[in-house]
């Protein structure tokens, strides 16, 4: 403790602390809208914080040589960071506290009218502004440290929820609303999943993709893992084209995009379809492919074992032929389907005679036991052909 004129002035002011707390509390509410609403910082908590900090300020004013105790501003900084209060507004409230203390000290010194009043006020002013800087620095450091910790925790939480979203894992601590809110996505709407290859060091195949999409007004959530970078993208009307442009511009590895789907619950299925689209690209190529299959293709892509069984049962004998023969027959069947069952149009596309197409279709009939003239047989052939294409892409 010291017995300086400033210390004696502080001693005379200390009994007026309740008055000072009321003054600072009222001024903060009057001047700072953030605190006036009490949604961010409850009024009773603000009042306790004001009193807590003013007590520490008075103690520091009394004895300049005492060890600094910054627990009060540090606690305030941490708490306001947790509440999401903007740092400039928090510092502004602190400055109101110091200004109000200086006003009270000056008021008391004038009332005392002692011979050394001027010197005492000069000492009080110097001490006030020194403490203002020190307390503001302590508060700011605590605020930023807490903000960084919160960001890390939020990112970890976000990553865990994204993982649950992509895998379909049910989390007891996070319902659909919380998942969509934390990830910044609507619960329903138009979505696509984008899957890109990564290097062995988990380097993003779509570097800066989230920011690139956000710059175009497109919300997304991403997860980076060894071998894959996955993102779910929320699309408003007219955003499909820009999303594809951004993805294509940033792709440095093979990248697949799922069909559009309507609910986040369908995300695991979309991940699989995007992976199928990726698998259809040549290895080592920085290209983007969109899964454009019909609903049947989506079903077959999800049921891989059944899809393989379908191929074996329907097209097995065809696939056992020598490479050139089986390729010719499969390509012909695909052309026939692509041209609405017209042998003439399929022949034009394949630069051959329509009778050649009919002959090859008869061979497929003989080998598979399924005639292109019978509806149920056509359904089997179409499904098997689709499954074969997906197997090659996957």
From TrEMBL:
InterPro entries: CdaR-like_regulators, CdaR_GGDEF, PucR_C-HTH_dom, PucR_C-HTH_sf, RsbRD_N_dom. Residues 175-278 form the CdaR GGDEF-like domain. Residues 329-387 form the PucR C-terminal helix-turn-helix domain. Pfam families: GGDEF_2, HTH_30, RsbRD_N. Residues 18-158 form the RsbT co-antagonist protein RsbRD N-terminal domain. It comes from the Bacteria. Belongs to the CdaR family. PANTHER family: CARBOHYDRATE DIACID REGULATOR, DNA-BINDING TRANSCRIPTIONAL ACTIVATOR ADER. This is Transcriptional regulator. It comes from Amycolatopsis antarctica.
């Amino acid at each position: 403790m010291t017995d300086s004129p400033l210390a004696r002035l502080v001693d005379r002011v200390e009994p007026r602390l309740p008055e000072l707390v009321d003054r600072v509390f009222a001024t903060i509410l009057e001047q700072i809208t953030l605190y006036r609403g009490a949604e961010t910082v409850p009024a009773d908590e603000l009042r306790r914080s004001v009193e807590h900090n003013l007590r520490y300020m008075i103690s520091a004013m009394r004895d300049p040589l005492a060890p600094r105790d910054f627990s009060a501003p540090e606690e305030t900084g941490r708490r306001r960071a947790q509440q999401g209060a903007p740092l400039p507004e928090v510092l502004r409230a602190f400055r109101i506290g110091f200004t109000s203390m200086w006003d009270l000290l000056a008021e008391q010194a004038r009332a005392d009218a002692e011979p050394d009043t001027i010197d005492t006020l000069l000492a009080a002013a110097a001490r006030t502004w020194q403490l203002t800087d020190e307390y503001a620095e302590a508060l700011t450091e605590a605020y930023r440290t807490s903000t960084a910790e919160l960001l890390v925790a939020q990112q970890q939480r976000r990553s865990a929820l994204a993982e649950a979203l992509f895998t379909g894992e049910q989390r007891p601590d996070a319902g659909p609303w919380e998942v969509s809110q934390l990830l910044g996505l609507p619960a329903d709407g138009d979505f696509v999943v984008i899957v890109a290859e990564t290097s062995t060091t988990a380097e993003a195949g779509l570097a800066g993709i989230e920011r690139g999409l956000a710059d175009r007004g497109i919300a997304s959530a991403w997860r980076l893992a060894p071998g894959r970078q996955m993102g779910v993208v929320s699309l408003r009307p007219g955003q499909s084209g820009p999303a594809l442009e951004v993805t294509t511009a940033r792709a440095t590895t093979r990248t697949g995009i799922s069909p559009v789907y309507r609910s986040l619950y369908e995300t695991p299925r979309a991940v699989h379809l995007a992976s199928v689209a990726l698998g259809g690209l040549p290895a080592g190529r920085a290209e983007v492919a969109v899964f454009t299959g019909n609903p049947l293709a989506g079903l077959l892509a999800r049921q891989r074992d059944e899809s393989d069984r379908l191929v074996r049962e329907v097209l097995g004998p065809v696939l056992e032929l020598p490479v050139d023969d089986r390729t010719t027959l499969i390509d012909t069947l695909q052309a026939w389907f692509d041209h609405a069952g017209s042998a003439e149009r399929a022949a034009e596309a394949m630069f051959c005679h329509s009778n050649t197409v009919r002959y090859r279709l008869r061979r497929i009939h003989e080998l598979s036991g399924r005639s292109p003239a019978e509806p149920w047989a056509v359904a089997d052939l179409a499904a098997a052909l689709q499954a074969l294409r997906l197997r090659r892409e996957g």
